Amino acid sequence: MERNAETPSPAASPAEIGFLLDVDGPIASPITRSIAIPSIIDDLVALTAAGVPVAFITGRSDAFIAEQVIAPLWAAGLGDALSAPGARMFGVFEKGGAWARVDADGMSESVVDESVAFSAEAIAGVRELVAARFSDTMFFDETKRAMISVEQRTDVSSDEYHAQQAAFQQAAFELLTGLGVGLTYGDQSVADADGATPFRIDPTIISTDIESVLLDKDRGAERAIEYFASLGDLPREWRSVGDSRSDYKMADYVHAAGMSVAHVDVRPADGMLERQYQVLTIDGFIHDEAGALLLGYWRRAIGA
């Protein structure tokens, strides 16, 4: 159950709730990088069939979400669920760099925002850097289309990866700024020929994203809610769920748009942020275990 949350009545309606979900952490295990708790799949399908709008807002690529999220949901009956009246699902990838609808026909071809993408030279340079110096602990994500991502190998420990992550990030910063890319990394900043710094290096616990400064979870939330609104009335209440401080930006957007929202932090040990809306945790549980409890709670609340 949500801590410090209002408790919905047993007769709560699907129209009362909508979800904006980060993927790594609350849905997919940060260890296996897949949905490891079966109830998450069952509950997402049931909530969707009941008319609860569900958006996946992630730094992951469309290919990853199609394989690791949509495919297991589809095998559990998502196609039938999305055929139900009022069913809505949407995917925002690479923090807003690409997006796709998910309907009864499956996940659509993604739209990619080319205005925030890197040059082929920059992409090739980082790929070669990883291969030459860092391939023992990380790999270049070939599925990304707007950002550059380098991820921890699943066969190395977090300690091994983190011991090399900062060195990779510094090397990537020097490489890209040497190519003329305007880039910020921590307190370092080098402008491009126009005097701008349109890109940044953004570390996570399992990866490093090198991305446009225009990309973030608030941009993803805006795109998802615009899509849901185009199909029907929006719910009265939203939950954004994530394991990173940047995930709060999903709720920031919803709150700024004048809608009721609470953010569920499934990794509060990193430091919970003060906000004007409610920030919730799941007592004693983190990551996908917390995500599973939250989804099960709301499925029971609406009788799905």
Instruction: Estimate the mean pLDDT confidence.
Output: 94
Q: Give the biggest beta sheet.
A: 9 strands, mixed
Radius of gyration: 19 Å
Number of strands: 15
Descriptive overview:
α1 (38-49) runs parallel beside α8, α4 crosses α5 (158-178) and α6 packs across α7 (248-256). The protein is globular, with a radius of gyration of 19 Å. The chain is built from eight helices and 15 strands. It is 35% helix and 21% strand. The protein has 304 residues and is an alpha/beta fold. Strands 1, 2, 3, 4, 5, 6, 13, 14 and 15 form a nine-stranded mixed β-sheet that branches.
List the helices and strands and how they pair.
Layout (H helix, E strand, L loop, with lengths): L16 E5 L16 H12 L4 E4 L4 H14 L2 H4 L7 E5 L4 E6 L2 E2 L3 E2 L7 H15 L3 E3 L7 E5 L5 H21 L4 E3 L2 E3 L8 E5 L3 E6 L4 H15 L5 E6 L5 H9 L3 E6 L12 E3 L6 H16 L2
Parallel strand pairs: 1-2, 1-13, 2-3, 9-11, 13-14, 14-15
Antiparallel strand pairs: 3-4, 4-5, 4-6, 7-8, 8-12, 9-10, 11-12
Give keywords.
single chain; 304 residues; alpha/beta; 9-stranded mixed β-sheet; 6-stranded mixed β-sheet; 8 helices; 15 strands; 35% helix; globular
Give a concise summary.
This protein has 304 residues and is an alpha/beta fold.
